[in-house]
Predict the structure.
Amino acid sequence: MTDSKLYIYNTLKRERELFVPQHAPFVGMYLCGPTVYSSPHLGNARGPITFDVLFRYLTFLGYKVRYVRNITDVGHLENDADEGEDKISKKARLDKLEPMEIVQLYTVAYHDIMRQLNILPPSIEPRASGHIIEQILMIEKIIEHGYAYVSEGSVYFDVKSFEKDYPYGELSGRITDDLQSNTRELDGQSEKHNPLDFALWKKASPEHIMHWPSPWSEGFPGWHIECSAMSAKYLGETFDIHGGGMDLLFPHHECEIAQSLGANGKQPVRYWMHNNMLTINGQKMGKSLNNFIMLHELFSGKHHLLEKAYSPMTLRFCMLQSQYRNPIDFSNKGLQDAEKAYEKLSGIYLLLKEMNWDGTSINPETEKTLSSFEDECIDAMNDDINTAIVLSNMFKVSSVVNQFNTSGKTEGVSKENFEKFKKTYCTFFTDILGLLPEANTAQGNEEFGKLVDSLLEVRNEAKKKKDFTLADAIRNTLSKFVTLQDTPEKTNWKYEKKK
RNA sequence: GGUCCUGUGGCCGAGUGGCUAGGCAGAGGUCUGCAAAACCUUGUACGGCGGUUCGAAUCCGCCCGGGACCUCCA
């Protein structure tokens, strides 16, 4: 069960480390969730997919995982100035909505996308707005310990005084002197003793519409404190795994460490894991670059950069094709390749699921290919969750399965070996990688399916009468919506959304 | 400017001292009314220059290119 040797890359140590939970079989895992102020975009999908696979794999290994993924509904400052405005309240003002209406709208949208991507719900999904008290209590502890000060109703973390007792910048490899000299001149830094200090609590300006009472002012919590407060509450002051995007390394995660040490005197996290970023056609995705793709746009194909719609599973597969610490470039070609590759493996899964052993002989080569499959997949996962290798292992066995299917017999393999292989493939495909075969109908529209089927009846009549002109005409006409595939028994069809 | 990551064949993407990655695309073939799928065969590679080594895509140095972060961002 848990004797498996899982190695994960720990950003804090900058090397792969054997994963040993603090209190096996229990594992505590935290992922920085979304700020719910706009529709989820392509970049929002990578972290949840990466850590969903980790969550699934740890569970597969037999661990009892408590996976916490927060919802940030308090908003972060737009910038580090006193005039800084909460993202959510800014959006609320622009849309003339109550802030919590924005939060509700985009939380639902986020959940919807997560469901489509077959991402399991976390064990706990705490909201920052529901943990204001915990955040205030944590800030009080930090002040008590002398690592924070109150200035004009706001509270700032005192990096200089913290550095006397603990290192700052360990995770991100920053040196405070360098940071100092590189700090830009921003307005409204006057409240801070030092430009590196960061806000724990901000006093709300009169036009700021999201605020709560606190010992210091009517205001709102700083950018980083929610994750520290909520992870400590649900996972303890020290827990196993903390994940997030590489862009959060500094300052967000660095600040989390400082806050937790400042409040509790303990390193909060044993293994820090960071997924890499993605690019679109080789360029950073950014609103100003006009290449920002929302996930609902990807799924519908309605975006000027997209040649067609790509399904949630295509996206999931595409992401799993590279190891999480490498960047992924998105392009139409890449997505179309991923779509084909995904359909191939998905087809293998569907074949295998219905296949029963009926061999008569043993072929040593086939036997070996199938028997080594499980170990190879586990080795790949144990090597810092290398899903790319797991997928390549699946391709290696795919032709064996196709040959079984073509010949109608599972020839060359023992019953025991076949059963084990079948179970392993299905478990890795659906339970660990979280891939689901997609439905053959147009988004579950039964009538559409019936319509196609009745046209195919006409076509099959034509084929029987050798009227291939009519048969081909029907196929060509249908090709705008569905792709046909004739087999000796029947005609399979697949709905394909064309732009 | 600082910190860090990265450069593999037409494209994507593993590997990390000697041993086939894999996918997509391409070429040839089998099968099929045709198409598709499937199966068989098949080519091209490790940014540049030095160094270490019996041996380097893999280690070291320098150079060149790409990217991220340093400011909200997954």
Q: What stands out?
A: The domain at 8-275 of chain A is CATH 3.40.50.620 (Rossmann fold). Chain A has 17 helices and 15 strands. Residues 77-83, 183-188 of chain A have pLDDT under 50 and may be disordered.
